[in-house]
Structure formats: C-alpha cells, structure tokens
Amino acid sequence: MSGTFVRVCGLSELEEDTPKRVELDGTPISVVHTEGEVFAINDICSHANVSLSEGEVDDCHIECWLHGSRFDLRSGKPDSLPATRPVPVYPVKIEGDDVLVSLSQES
Ligand code: FES
Question: Keyword Iron, does the record have it (predicted)?
Fold first, then answer.
C-alpha cells in the first residue's frame, strides 16, 4: 500500500519534542513534533533492536538512548557512531488535527 497516507494519531496528542510510538501495518514508527514540523521515523535503531521513541529529541535529531547515536529526522541518517546505517523515514501529511503517514519512503 505504498503511497497511501494513513492516520496514525492526532496532532494535539503530540507533545513538542516528545516522540510518540505508533504502529502502521505492523511497522513501529516514532512520530515527532519538533521545530514546527512533524516527522515519522522507523522506531527501531539501526544498530540494535532498541526503540528510538524512548530517546531524546534535539536539533531535528532523535538520539538512541542505548549508545547515543543521533538520527536526522529528515533523512534518517546517523550523525554519530556506533550506528552507521540510516533508519527509514516516512512522508507525513497534516490534515486538520490528523497526522497521516505513508509507509512509502519517497518524500
Ligand atoms: S542500539 Fe542504538 S546506537 Fe546502539
């Protein structure tokens, strides 16, 4: 169902800089409202099976709480070791209070 946007939560449910974990078709996603935008990034760190939504958000990055790699919410790329592989990011649309995410990775 790539390209199909599906509602994952309400915009008003998101606290600024506090990731929210949701699931879409069995895919865990961390939804983050920061710097006036909403981002959706796969919730599993590319280094080990750890939930990124338990980490901190700063400067448009989400930090893995276990070893501290920081992933760019726009690209999914890590900017610090030990992670070397990007985490998938997903396009987001806002419609009223609805946050919609598409599992397609083309933004
Ligand atoms: S598990 Fe995320 S950086 Fe190691």
Answer: yes
